[in-house]
Amino acid sequence: MKLNALLKTLGFLALAATPVVAGTSAPAKNPKNPYIAPPVNDDLGITASIGYDSNYVWRGINYGQHWVRAGLNGALLLVGGAAEDGAGSTSLLWDVNYGSLAGDQDSFSPNIGTLTGGAIKNTASFQRLQLGAAISHDFGPAAVSFGYSFIHNMGSLANGSGMNGVVGQGYGMNDIQQLTLGVNTNLGPINLASSANYDLFNGGWYFDLTAKSIITVTDAISIVPHAGLGYGLNYNAGFTQASRNLVGGGGFLTNSSAQNGISGWTALTVGIDFPIKLNSRATLTPYVAANLPMGPYKNLARSATSYAGTPVGGPATPFHSIVYYGVTLSVRF
């Protein structure tokens, strides 16, 4: 009797000491080293941004003052290769961007509205919508991408009324449909990116090369110096043939050698970004930069001229050297 009672007691204690198993057993609690669940990566791979630029400079051309913009971009992993097998990864990259000159402060028509005299005004409006997609493959040492972008130009500068005050004479800008082949790699602390761009609608090539380096100041603040160089081959920036031929200083490319597009170095752009990490998802990036026209662009820089004694509002500042600045707020989702 006493032996049976003792065995029952020992069996009960052993059962009580056995952990209850329901699926995966819970980790034992240790007050000195508490269990912390790993962070969950719930990113959608999308970044939204809004920004302001004192001047809108694109491919060496200063389109105007006070550019306000917004954008979305993202990356969708299509094929993921393990780092150790050297297979790399393939992703779909996409972006949507919209910008507008606030207050119609363009740089192409300093005398528009003043053909009979009066104060100089920059009154042409300009907006731009850009949609793009590309397939990118990361080989490890370098990433290669191939994509398409559609650029829709809007406003009086695009429809021609910002050049001569009259719509329907073929002045202005066409939309741009562009194929792009890009390469991105790192040389030590320097990131290099280059692209070749062909305009399917307007013709002409544009090539660029950019370099940047990231200097970490604190966990939240960095300094990013960068420089870019452009080269055009029969390049016209989407301006119509009528705009390129417009006489009297009112056109985009007015010298005879450039009426079919420019060929040569376009501009050197240098600048410094100052990314500030506000939290794990938001970054504020002020910047300052300088655009320095070269070759054909430099030759196009001039003061507004007159035709038959009348000011026609020709491009006075799109091709002048300029220092500009801006800021971008980006949030990752």
Summarize the structure.
This protein is mainly β. The chain has helices spanning 2-17, 156-159, 161-164, 241-245, 295-300, and strands spanning 46-58, 61-80, 89-101, 127-138, 142-154, 176-187, 190-199, 205-213, 215-216, 222-235, 262-273, 276-277, 282-293, 306-307, 310-311, 322-332. It is globular.
Any overview of this molecule?
The chain is globular, with a radius of gyration of 29 Å. The protein is mainly β. A hairpin with a 2-residue loop joins strand 1 and strand 2. It has five helices and 16 strands. 11% of the residues lie in helices and 48% in strands. The longest helix is centred in the first third of the chain and has 16 residues. About 12% of the residues have low confidence.
The largest sheet, given as strand count, sense and whether it forms a barrel, is: 12 strands, antiparallel, barrel
Helix/strand structural class: mainly beta
Strand content: over 45%
Poorly predicted sequence stretches spanning 5 or more consecutive residues: 9-27, 112-120, 303-313
Summed over residues and divided by their number, the pLDDT gives a mean of 80
**What's the gyration radius in Å?**
29 Å
From the N-terminal CA to the C-terminal CA, the straight-line distance is: 70 Å
General shape: globular
Q: What's the total helix number?
A: 5
Query: What is the share of helical residues?
Result: 10-25%
Order of helices and strands: HEEEEEHHEEEEEHEEEHEEE
Instruction: Provide the spatial order of strands within the biggest beta sheet.
Output: 1-2-3-4-5-6-7-8-10-11-13-16
Number of strands: 16
